[in-house]
Amino acid sequence: MAQSVNLKPFYVVVGAVVLAGAAWIWSSRSGGEAIEVGPMPVNATAFPGWVLGSDSAPVEIVEYADFECPACGHFAILTAPDVKTRLVASGRVRFRFRDFPLDGHANSPAAHLAGACAGEQGRFWEMADQLFYQQREWVPERRPMREFRRYADAIGLDVDQWEACMKEGRSAGGKVAAGKQEGIAIGVQSTPSFVIGGLLVAGSLSYDSIVSLVERAEARLAQ
Prior knowledge:
Blueprint: H1 8-30, E1 35-36, E2 50-52, E3 59-65, H2 70-78, H3 80-88, E4 93-99, H4 108-119, H5 124-133, H6 135-138, H7 145-154, H8 159-168, H9 170-186, E5 193-196, E6 199-202, H10 207-222
Parallel strand pairs: 3-4
Antiparallel strand pairs: 1-6, 2-4, 3-5, 5-6
Helix pairs in contact: 4-5, 4-8, 4-9
């Protein structure tokens, strides 16, 4: 008579392998492990960041980014346009950019100040596009102000006013600092990092990964 074989341990191992594989696939697609951060910290006196989209959008995407970061540039060029035209413009999400200049990036502080000073004239997003799309021009420069000034002129800023903001820097610098302080408070350690539906995910996410996280947030809201 053939002996019966207990296959339970086998199936347990297979199940563990499948779960591990699923977790690896999610991590690979999304850019990193999703960490629950809960409600975002609220500080009524701090600058809330640069926002695209409707206040009534049910889901918010918050990006913590460094203008000198290559992965941030990758996201800005390849993924952000789809997010803006397909998710933000439809009213499905609101997109919030938070400055997170990394230590060790020599030109990053000036680049973020350039963006904030452009924002004082209502042109933050245009300057952000210039900074990300032209990274190869200004990142290697020891003194990138010539390039930044050219971008300011190209997007139609009052360049004298923008330069005065760059020299003074107090108000604009405070806006940059507010974004980094918030990121540190919730555990941001690298750029780009995103908070979507209370989940913090690091990495240059693909559009499909963004949509998956948005759908997950929408499902939680519907419960």
